Amino acid sequence: MMDEQDQNQQLPTSWALTTLGEIQLDTSRSILPSDTPSKMFELYSVPNFVEGKPEIVSGAEIGSNKKTVQVETVLLCGINPRINRVWIVGDFSPHTKIASTEWRQFAKQEGIDPKYLKYFMQTNSFRDFLASNASGVGGSLMRVQNSAFASYPFPVPPLPEQHRIVAKIEQLFSDLDAGVAALENAKQQLKRYRQSVLQSAVTGKLTADWRAAHQHELEPASTLLARIRAERKEKRNDKHKEVSSLNTSELEEPPEGWEWATIGEIAKSMKNGIYKEKEYYDHVGIACLRMYNIDNNGRIVWKDIKRMRLAKSEIEEYLLLPGDILVNRVNSRELVGKAAPIPKGLEDCVYESKNIRLRLWSDSFESGYVSYWFQSKGQAYFSFNAQQVVGMASINQVQLAAMPILIPSPIEQVKIVAEVERRLSVADQIEKTIDASLLQSERLRQSILKKAFSGNLVPQDPTDEPAEKLLERIRANREKQPNGKTKQLPLLNDTPKKKRRNTT
Question: Higher model confidence: residue 503 or residue 13?
Answer without folding.
Answer: 13
